[in-house]
Predict the 3D structure of the following.
Amino acid sequence: MKSSIYKLLMGSMVVLSLQANAQNAVEAPNTKAPKISLQQAVDIALRNNISVKQSEIQLQNALLNHQQSKNNLLPTASGTVSEFFNFGRSLDPFTNTYVARNINYNSLNVNAGVTLFNGYLLKNTIAQNDLLVKANQLDMQAMKENISMQVVLAYLNILNAEDQLAIGQSQTAITRLQIERTDKLVRAGSLAQSNLLDLKAQLANEETTVVNSQSTLDLAKLTLLQLLNDKDISNINLDRISVPTPTTTLYEAPIDKIYEIAEDSQPVVKASDFRVKSADRGIAIAKAGYLPTISFSGTFGANQSNAQKEYRVDGTNEQNLGTVSFNGQDIPLIVKTPRTVEMGTVGYFKQLENTLNYGFGVNANIPIFSRFANKTRVSQAKLQKTNAELEAQKTRLTLRQNIEQAYTNMNNAAKRYEALTVQVTALEESFRAAESKFNAGAIDFVSYNLQKTNLDKAKANQIQAKYDFIFRTKILDYYQNKPLTF
């Protein structure tokens, strides 16, 4: 009897040692692969995720629209430089007469204007674009939080798969020890050959389970690698986080409290509210079409042409226009005119100075009848606001439903984990008794194997329930704006 107890204790110590070695092997299966912590995995995934990058582009575009709406308050200014060439009989731009010569004409003009009033359209557009920027910022935040949750789930799935693999490896080690012991007993004639064959068949089944567990682990790692989306990382080892043993006590916050916190903190809810406010500004923008637009403008111009010549007086010319009679005498009528000599074209800048002109004015555009276009735009803007309000209600309803579903899933996961924990404890006691009886030859292999199979299955289910319960709890923590830490 003492010998049997000693063998049982020694066997248990060997099994515990093998379980520890299997766990250590799972924790560092490949020293060449980089070790990645949960926070590192989240950071890499957020940096490389295409959807996040697209969200950043949308935010940048919203920022540009907002800045441009501010810039629209500034005056506009434009300059025009034109050069015309006329050949043959051309109009002299200075004498406004036709001359038989080639003329080129250069014109410089600067125009500036500023909107003084347009029904507050510019002001409301700035406010609307500011609201859209905030909505896009929250959209990007929601996108990042969603990616982070996916990484956490993938991380926990890897931990689950590693623990499942460790159990399978330890159970296989137990079976190998049992085969060695049974083989000795068969050789000694204490047990039938069938017992050894049954154990070898059991080992084959367990080795198949280990292979399947390894495949599940590989797929779980592949899922995380795809989320990381980093071509430089082809394989990973987890820097295993210390996942606390979950408690099955009632979750600290009820559904109503979780929803109240989520409604005030969730970015998708805030973004939908900003879009309602943006749509309200859209109504004000549409109503601006009913009001007049008042603007101020000014012009500045000058021109130059090769037709403008510079002359100097070089004496006078006398012209006899005939005679007139005065007191019976014919008096010749002679007119003296200055004789001019062309000295060339007037200088370019001097012509600009001589032709300088400018002006300014105020313009009022008063809408009288627009074929009901303004009325249609206002109606459409109101419909857009109604739709935005419905989207906000839909977002809140979806949030409430998701929280209720998550809370129910968490409670069910807690109950399942608690039941499986009780089951594992009971089956461990039952298996130890069955193992002792089997070693003493008191029960057959079928009875022993049934106890062992039930224990293995219960442990695997317990681990699965553990990580499922942890993840369900983290979802509720997320809705309460708590960090995704363990």
The CA atoms of residues 429 and 455 lie 10 Å apart.
